[in-house]
């Protein structure tokens, strides 16, 4: 079984796997439209994590993990809790295209997608509003800022040829807001 990750799974799968490949799926755009009240946020301050939006002209880059034998049941049980029960995601089969040039045919992979029907779905917002929500959100897996920055770093280092305007616009908005949060009374008096 192959499992495609496009959010925190790209740097922290949390399950054993046999191999991994960087690549993409077609027909979807990555969006920070899913709320998270456990891993990267709380009930009072939900974090923002990614889901996929059907978009016929787009592709989303990430990592596909191959799980075999005993790894299959253990990984699916773990991911069901992490993504479906705690996250509100549904599963779907997609065609994964490995980045390697000498690759064979696309690989069928399982992917977790949060739909507008789940209670944690937040939907669209401006990049600035999403960045502001990410800045103030933290959950049991860490701060929401870490989630955004690790995902942006993954894209820069492993998929430098790929574009993800939504992701990088939110990162840019976050970076422009951060210095404003660290103004001290002394620096305010100087201005």
TrEMBL record:
Q: Which residues form a coiled coil?
A: none
State the EC number(s). 4.3.2.7
The record's listing under InterPro entries reads:
ChaC, GGCT-like, GGCT-like_sf
Name the domain of life this protein comes from. Answer: Eukaryota
Task: Name any Gene Ontology BP term.
Answer: nervous system development
Q: Which Gene3D superfamilies would you find in this protein's record?
A: Gamma-glutamyl cyclotransferase-like
Q: Which GO terms describe its molecular function?
A: gamma-glutamylcyclotransferase activity; glutathione specific gamma-glutamylcyclotransferase activity; transferase activity
Question: Keywords of this protein's UniProt record, alphabetized?
Answer: Apoptosis, Cytoplasm, Golgi apparatus, Lyase, Neurogenesis, Notch signaling pathway, Transferase, Unfolded protein response
Among the Pfam families in the record, one is ChaC
Q: Which reaction does it catalyse?
A: glutathione = L-cysteinylglycine + 5-oxo-L-proline
Location(s), subcellular: Cytoplasm, Cytosol; Golgi apparatus, trans-Golgi network
Q: Which GO terms describe its cellular component?
A: cytosol; Golgi apparatus
Q: What is this protein's function? A: Catalyzes the cleavage of glutathione into 5-oxo-L-proline and a Cys-Gly dipeptide. Acts specifically on glutathione, but not on other gamma-glutamyl peptides. Glutathione depletion is an important factor for apoptosis initiation and execution. Acts as a pro-apoptotic component of the unfolded protein response pathway by mediating the pro-apoptotic effects of the ATF4-ATF3-DDIT3/CHOP cascade.
Regarding protein family, the annotation reads: Belongs to the gamma-glutamylcyclotransferase family. ChaC subfamily.
| Name of the protein | Gamma-glutamylcyclotransferase
**Gene source species:** Mystacornis crossleyi
